[in-house]
Amino acid sequence: MAKGKALTSYEKGQVDALQGIGFNITQIANKINRSRCAIRNYLNLGTNYDTERSTGRKSTLGSITKKKIIHLARVEHQNSTQIKVGLQLNVTSRRVRQILSTCPTLKYIKKLSKPKLTQAHKTARLQFARKYMDYSQAWENVLFSDEKKFNLDGPDGAQYYWHDIRDEREVRMSRNYGGGSLMIWGAFSIKGKLPLAFITTKMNSKKYTEMLETSLIDHAEEIIGCNFTFQQDNASIHRSAETMAWLHGRHIPLLDWPACSPDLNPIENLWGIMVRRIYENGKQYSCVIELKEAIKATWKEIEPGIIQKLVGSMPSRIFSVIQNSGGHTKY
User: Fold this and answer.
1) I want to staple 188 with a disulfide (CB 3.0 to 4.6 A). Which of 38, 193, 233, 239 is the partner?
2) Would residue 62 be called left, alpha or beta, if left means φ above 0 and alpha means ψ between -120 and 50 degrees?
3) pLDDT tens digits for 77-135?
């Protein structure tokens, strides 16, 4: 058997599953990012796989300690350094990670950045989905909108943890504001994008409606036409009496939007695309002017096909909410 790092239990499970659905050795190797040789050896040796390898130095950690390590990662979501210090282990953090990687039900993943859903939120989301499950082509007349913050030094830090794949993924609460950043407001329909508006982080109802007066009123009719439905989330300035009166006075119909539902808004996915492009290869910005130009250029370069695909995903998003009884979707 060729020398090299042996497949972990998790990787062997992946190989078995992929082979079971018809993947060949090359396809499996590409899928799990391992060599074709490693995959072939495992498939050829079967239950004898890895028995010919040298076991190296005998582990200084007993089975009870290893169980404690896995327990702290799975239940307490501690990282390898925290586990090493907490258990006062005379091994490196890398060795702790090696032990964790042997557990077939643990995977090191990023926390989901989604709002916490109460039962009331789930009920409202489910009612919304049932109401609009037959909306079909009408989504083409919806103008989706949202605000987004961009930092000079990159997107807000991602948090990773050891996740038991049998449990629901842990959610990381996302922060809204911070220094060295720009806030923007954007909107689009299947027919096109409105120009971006650069706004203050200290928005109130008056400033919000003033922004809509120039960014929405002046451009929406030109791009989408007169008969559109406006979508916004349930931020306080969006739902204030002043804002609602402004919308009513200009005869702009508003989509009934459930609280805590960024996964239903396709513009959130567009923000993700922009983030990846703006901060590609670890790009950072020295000043807000440079960042502003990058944001404007990236927004302008978003292809119409992407917009059409995102709006076209609305029926699937609605179905997923119903399927998950009002819970989070994959979007």
Assistant:
1) 193
2) beta
3) 888 888 988 898 988 888 898 889 888 888 777 666 677 889 999 999 999 999 999 88
**In the block, residue with structure tokens 């109130």:** 204
pLDDT digits (tens, 9 = 90+) for 180-221: 789 999 999 999 999 999 998 889 999 999 999 999 988 988
- Greater model confidence, 81 or 320: 320
| pTM beyond cutoff 0.70 | no
Asked whether residue 211 falls in the same domain as residue 319, the answer is: yes
How many domains does the chain contain in total?
Answer: 2
pLDDT mean over 63-76: 88
For 192, phi then psi, to 5°, come to: 150, 175
241-249 vs 205-215: helix crossing angle, rounded to 10: 30
**Phi, psi at residue 319, to the nearest 5°?**
-60, -40
Report CA 230 to chain centroid distance, whole Å: 24
The Cα–Cα gap between 215 and 137 comes to 25
Range of the domain at 201: 119-158+173-323
Confidence of residue 54 (pLDDT cuts 50, 70, 90): very low
Domain shared by 42 and 133, yes or no: no
Residues 96-106: tens digit of each pLDDT: 988 898 888 88
Reported for 51-55, long-range contacts at CB under 8 A and 24+ positions apart, including other chains, are 52/1, 53/1, 53/6
Q: Helix (H) and strand (E) counts for the chain?
A: 15, 7
CATH number at residue 8: 1.10.10.60
CATH of the domain at 211: 3.30.420.10
Please give the Cα distance from 181 to 212 (Å, whole number).
22
Q: Hey, CA dihedral for 88, 89, 93, 99, is it positive or negative?
A: negative
